Amino acid sequence: MTDDKNIHELNKKFRGIDRATDVLSFAFRESDEPKILDADFEILGEIIISLERAKIQAEDFGHSLLREIIFLEVHGLLHLLGYDHIEENDRIEMETEQNFIMEKLGIGRD
Description:
Layout lengths: L3 H12 L7 E5 L17 E5 L1 H11 L3 H16 L7 H17 L6
Antiparallel strand pairs: 1-2
Helix pairs in contact: 2-3, 3-4
């Protein structure tokens, strides 16, 4: 969790986009990160969420800050799993997965 200033800097440095964003995902599988030996799990990467942006979006969408943070976490996790939303078909697939996960978590648009 961070603020708009920090996520703006990260977005500019790593994606070349000079503005704040709501969530960034950095997948470890696509980088030169070392493997964790003797682990029973895999660390997929990092998810960074701007609390400032989440608060604004929660207000704009008319739901709770908690719901927005969970949505952004799900969105970031799907990116770590290889989903994207640049192409329309990919966007539809990712949105379907987001909705499925949010429903399974029992989190609707309150």
